[in-house]
Amino acid sequence: MAPVIATDEPRIFSITECCSPVATPHFTSTDADNLARVLKAIAEPARLQILNLIRVSETGDSCVCDITDALNLSQPTISYHLKKMVEIGLLKMEKRGYWNWYSINDDQLAGLQKIFATAPALRKK
Question: pTM for the whole thing?
């Protein structure tokens, strides 16, 4: 940093002297509103565990009975959380006979990744 020299002359500073340029946002206010709803929906430990169980399942989907056994939560509790995540679009539901099977909605997860992704040109090397 250069030494400060006292003078009576006005000095004009350029923002570029000290700051990195700000990129044009690719994340609109609508995107932010939608993401806030999704983050609120998964801001519950049981829901995060449910998402993880479904994601790591061999078939990529699970029914309520699989999740209930794994998390030691009641069926109504699991069903409530699944319903909320289907409503927000995090999960897809498919009816197979008597059971509902749930899978991750990858399109919705891509929206989550969008906010946390860094533009390649702006990444520090």
Answer: 0.69
